[in-house]
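Hi F.,

I've been meaning to write this up properly since the lab meeting, where we talked about keeping a consistent format for the predictions we share between groups. The idea is simple: the sequence comes first, exactly as it goes in, then the structure tokens exactly as they come out, then a line or two of notes. No screenshots and no reformatting. I'm using this chain as the first example so we have something concrete to point to.
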Amino acid sequence: MLIADSKTKRFALALASFCLAVFAGAPAVAAPYPERPIRLVVPFAPGGGTDAVARILAQEMAKDLGTSVFVENRPGAGTIIGTQAVAVRQPDGYTLLMGTFSHAVNSTLNARLPYDPHKDFAPVALIARSFNLVVVNPKSSVRSIADLVAAAKANPGKMTFGTYGVGTSAHLAGELFNDLAKVKLIAVPYKGAAPAITDLISGQIDVMFTTVASAASLVESGQLRAIAVTSAERSPAFPQIPTVAEAGVPRYAAESWYGLFAPAGTPRNVIDRLNKSAATAVQSDAFRKLGVNEGLVTVALPPEALERYVQAEEERWRRVIREAGITIE
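Output, unedited:
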């Protein structure tokens, strides 16, 4: 009886060892993606244009992905704080970044940037492009780009334009205007678009190159006058307003944009799934309505197109930044 028990035990142990070996050698079955909520980091405070775009995008992507996509606002240091927070996360597709214009210019503005915009990130999708409006006080004698150029040349170094921070699209759009129009408008930085526009309306500054979201309703109500759009072509939303280029400053074009990024090393199948979801999201009624209000041109291009676009933007703005001597320390 003891011998039988001993043989039974040895057989059981051998069978267990065999099963362990088989399971250890078997390939792991990957869990379907996504299986838990996804965080979308916005490197700006709540309430701005980027935040609005991110929230509608998250809402619509959540429907397609079958899981929650929640927005986390991480503002500060010209988008560096929020962007760095994503750069160090696990490359598993559960933390994403809503990148903007700053993603392409910060490496030129800041020599000690704590991340590399290419090596530390995987492009997911170019979501949309936008443009700024050139606006003045309706009581101003400036009624066109030609008027603005003439007034700036007659008063060198005396006319001012408001920005919402060093290196923002509103700032660099103005510096590009200085460069191509051969004038010297002085940049006046504010903590956001709202206080800058308040001063423009009250006559404290002369002009702004501001976002559609911040100015469109004020233009419509007559509190601001729009004299041009900064895009290369006229906008269907403002067909009566000329571009800066056609109004007298050849080669001028400046646009804002929104792109989705993941930490470098995120698996390609995850990137492709997110890209497909983003493309579906921007076709939704909610996103289309937002696009009209924000002056967006939705594109939803593939990862490779976003990477090429960012590289082109870096090259385009590097000269402007260096010639104007702009830095962020």
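Notes:
The longest helix spans residues 2-25.
The first strand starts at residue 38 and ends at 42.

If this format works for you, I'll send the rest the same way.

G.
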